[in-house]
Amino acid sequence: MRTRLRSRRALALLVPLLLLLSACASDAPQDTLEPEGPIARKIDNLVNPVFIIAAVVFVLVEFGVLYLVLRFRQRKDDDPDELPGQTHGNTKLEIGWTVLPALLLGFVAFATLATLFDITNTKDDGLTVQVTGQQWWWEFTYDTDGDGKFTDEDVLTANDLVIPAGENVGLEITSRDVIHSFWIPKLNGKKDAVPGRRHPLTINADEPGTYVGQCTEFCGLSHAYMRQRVVALAPDEFDAWLERQQDAADEPTDADAEAGAELFASQCSVCHLARGINDDQFEEAGQGTSELVSENAPDLTHFASRGAFAGATFDLWEDLDGDHIVEADEIGTANGGRLNRGDLEAWLRDPPGQKPMDPVTPDQVEAGERGRGMPNLNLSEEQIDQLVAFLQTLD
Amino acid sequence: MAIVERPTALPELPPGAAVTPRPLGVFTRPQSTTGWRSWLTTIDHKRIGIMYGAAAMFFFLLGGVEALFIRAQLAAPGQALYSADLYNQLFTMHGVTMIFLVVIPLGAAFMNYLMPLQIGARDVAFPRLNAFSLWLFLGGGLFLNSSWFLGGGANGGWFAYAPNTGVVFSPGHGMDFYALGLQMTGIASLAGAINLVVTVLNMRAPGMTLMKMPVFTWMGLVTQLLLVFALPVISVALFLLTFDRLFDANFFNVSAGADPLLWEHLFWIFGHPEVYILILPAFGIVSEIIPVFSRKPIFGYPFMVFSGIAIGFMGWGVWAHHMFASGMGPISVAAFSLSTMFIAVPTGVKILNWMATMWGGKLSFTTPMLFAIGLVTMFTIGGLSGVTHAVAPADTQQTDTYYIVAHFHYVLFGGALMGFLGGMYFWWPKVFGFKLSDKIGKWHFWLILIGFNLTFGPMHILGLQGMPRRMHTYIADYGFELWNMVATIGSFLIAAAMLVFVANILVSWRAHRLNPVSPGPDPWDARSLEWMVQSPPPAYNFDPVPTVSHLDEFWHRKYQENADGKVVRVATGAEAAQPGDSTDVHLPSPSYWPLVLAIALPIIAYGLIFNLGIAAAGGLLVIAAGFGFGYEPSDDPESHHGPHGNGHGDGHAQLGDGHEAGAGSEGEPEAGTAGAAGGETEPVGVASTASATDEPATDAEGSTDG
User: Fold this and answer.
1) The pTM of the whole model exceeds 0.95
2) pLDDT tens-digit profile of A64-117?
3) A117: which of A53, B4, B300, B623 is 20 to 30 A away, CA to CA?
4) Which domains does chain B have, with CATH numbers?
5) Least Cα separation, residue B426 to chain A (angstroms)
């Protein structure tokens, strides 16, 4: 009986260790232990020795306890009245095991501070993007007019933060409503987006590619569906992308898309802007400030150039190579991409049904209330088809 | 109030003279000491401790069911068993329940029951206040949970970061229940903490200097001091939140100029000492269990005590490690990173000292010992992952992921709860007069150990793979599926283990009913004073109050050095224990005012949410109960105290005398002086008691306790 108990105990102790060891083995796009940029790598280089130290201490303590349990158990043939040696302590020993961990931690502390200040002092290589969290999506602002401020005159985009690969990109992180947290695990640690404050963070991706993350500070109803992607492009492609983003949207040419554009201008202007399509209506309706607590909805001028929509909850384009991430070369019909029509139509049919939100009804708007997220507009199937045809042209 | 409880000196009466009862009307104190009513009016610290424990286990059931709902929803990606809003309520209420309504009151249960016994006192310093603490905690807890039926639970997380908890973002009443409910449990804990601090500092048995107190009582004292200083901070924060929500104040309104980081700082200045409030009582329990089942004294008692105190102090300087991603400057981050690392040192000292206690011992693996070893091994994992959070840059990757969830469950479940479960098995025979089955207990332990590791072990991996916390669902193909399923299976295994515990209680109770075998005062050959009284202890605990000359006083009354310098048994536990057959010990009468006052406060809280008129009615009731509390006679003349007229001099110390004796004994191990100093109204008092009955014990001088 006793032997069986003991072997089970040993097994139980090994479980967490085995689990930890297997942590690095699987394919996970948000894995914190597989950095793909120099800043995240600095963190990883710090974490590895700390984990090794922790693992050694773990093994020493757990196997130490196991040894004690096996070696010093009361045996059947022991005289029950015979007491073991009554040691009360050993000051030298105890000072020893107070000082030793302190020294070990001193080493960890030194490495921690060095890395901390190294990362904090990483400056951007010229590009700074404003990152604004709101319930439940991210807006990215590029200071394209060069006035040193992030305003509505600059390029605004959502869900996909596009950066040049291999460069340190500065982020100024803030929020329009509650606290969110911006995190792309493969590029850097996270930083909270706090309303009224601007927090700096620098990210850098080694190679062009798409890096995913999600909001990590609980932000209410749809916290789980507040995701974000960083799309790193080769520097010349990035310049072309930024150039294109400054253009107004093209006038749609085919009949369905034209009808969709009209529908967009009449139904969507209370919150959304597509520059070149509904500027006047958006202006009239109060520039998106009337219905939402955060007073802001995604700028859709270049909607179709993004890989995801609705707070990056859904892929906008199909994942053709099956790696669960829509890369830059899968975005846009001209690139050979295929629109994820199913999710987009479902979204237009009933947004709160696709993602938990708390939008206002027209009555509530009358009463001066403001909501969070997109309401159901009760569109007909024909209207949805027209809107999808139009949205596709916003590349 | 301690003074109020003391009966005024009664006039000498001729033998046989009848005392004329005086009618006291509404202020008459209740008298029943049996039946369910007596539980409502009791001011006995032991009954209050039992009720704390029972209430905590009831809330544990609620919090556990909430956890199972959470795990069921997360078993597979993209599930929608229920709405995101309900999920947010469930995880919020799970956290709030487990922290404020389970682990804190479980600590309170053990400390209430054991600390007076361990210091040789007859009750706490303020017995009625103690009852008030219990009822208000229960009232606050039920108030919080009544939100489920009144529009939904709190949904802003237990940490309730502003401004997400404002009316704009959380328009239901859930966060009002959160703020007001925790305000009440906070008042309850604060009153309880002051009570126990005063008790420990003033009411120790003669001879029990601070450095002769059991480690559990020491850790309890540190815990209560942490509560005394930490709770006002959260009270302030909760008041600000309440005013924001109910009266349109702007403490956390960003558009009116507020900085939401104010809440984060206030919350964590409370929140981190809170972590030590949760864990230190369990450390104390384990420090009692391991020596008993190793048959050795605790290794390095002063190091154990001072490491506990060090944790208590350093616990105040680490709060912002919860905020490494919140946008503090690098200097703040560096400072809190360093302080957090070095709080690991005293914690590590404790682990090593427990191991050294086992070294060279004769270990018997009873259920309490298994749980104690469970704490040592599982808490170590939580401690080590804690050090990895202290590495601030690493923490920016880990914080708000499941890695943190894994970490604090290894601390609070693998640490605190393991300790409390071990403590229940350990003290069960003392409290209820029968042992829990060791065989079923071992099933309980192994099931819970395996279930616990299956549930929370995988969360380390999930977190490092980038799965954030507090998500009502997650998407497929990010590597989260397998480990979430494993965790869900593990959580149901924990539930099964807790059913085994319930079964153990029922089976053992039934066996005891069919075949009552008393476990005796000292079933484990234990060391501290609570084992010196019968099981269950008499209402008055000790008579006479023992005089203490050693750490592990009771053990030293059983084992002494013989002529060869060898420590041998000189008495059995039953011989060394007090018989518990005194009939004439005066105890303060029960009171219903604590209950009335504790009911009045939730009425105010409901009123603040739903109708200010109800709040006003509750306020009037508070005033009435306050008067009742204050003008209640210190004693009921109709209750029987035994032969008062001539009974005081014959060695039966009054509760009041006991207090004074304890206070007087600070730094004066000699019982005689202490008693003399304390005997305010009774010139004979404790001094005679001690010298009359403690002769055999004082011979233990010069044994191994150097």
Assistant:
1) no
2) 999 999 999 988 888 877 889 899 999 999 999 999 999 999 999 999 999 999
3) A53
4) 23-38+587-591+632-705 (no CATH), 45-122+164-514 (1.20.210.10), 529-576 (no CATH)
5) 18
